[in-house]
Amino acid sequence: MSDQSQSLLQNTRRRLAALSDTPYLDAQVLLSHVLGRQRVWILAHPSPSLTPRQRENLAQALLRLESGVPLPYVIGRWEFYALDFTITPHVLIPRPETELLVEKALNWLRRHPARRSCADIGTGSGCIAITLAKHIPDAKILATDISFRALRVAQGNARKHDVEAQISFLGDNLLAGVTQRFDVVCANLPYVPTPALKTLKVYGREPTQALDGGPKGLTVIQSLMEMVPRNLAPGGLILLEIDSSHSLEAARLAQGAFPAAEVRLHADLAGHDRILAIQT
User: Fold this and answer.
1) 55 and 102, same structural domain?
2) pTM higher than the cut 0.90
3) Which residue among 132, 195, 231, 247 is least packed, with the fewest CB closer than 10 Å?
4) What's phi and psi for 273, nearest 5 deg?
5) For residue range 209-222, what is the model confidence (pLDDT) as tens digits?
């Protein structure tokens, strides 16, 4: 490793140290974006000469990061479940916690090969629907979102991953205008309590509409619980991402909507309740 290239990577890391919990990783991701190379290439060949345009692009990207713009919005993409998604400020940045929801949906679908009708409510970037479609090629998925700007991003990602034939996109408030029944309903809805949201770094940096779950974080989830019984096929599964601060109350809402169902909470890697599963 040459001193020059080491300095480039290390200087970038130092610029990001005050902005990120993972500055070295973020520096690699940023440099791979600027250079148009895979991150593994940056690690193996960390001494490239930057063109004037690349130097300018790097400088502008660092300025945007230092102004508070999240890295995925700066580079316009982010990885989720080993797939690359286009990301804009109109959609929530995909997070590892949501991969747990996807994993549970995939496992259920693989155990039930005759059940292939799915819904992704509040699809955002489309990461849940598209990942399900990529891994279950005969799945048919409805993806809804109240934001038409988000739907355009999701539709673009579906084309990018060649699964647009499997997914229907609908601009709607949850399932308000939907009469179809589904075997699996997935939803990563706004679930952060409003008072807590205003204390988080994401506040004002990612779309508030995709984060704000109301005073207790359950406003949108409760609305879905009132709608979804008519849309779930017998023996179907609902998977909701939730905030650990209201997990028990969310479970009570679910049991009230589906008195005969098995309602379970699943923890994320940090040990916090993160996924609410309703098996009817």
Assistant:
1) no
2) yes
3) 195
4) -55, 125
5) 999 999 999 999 99
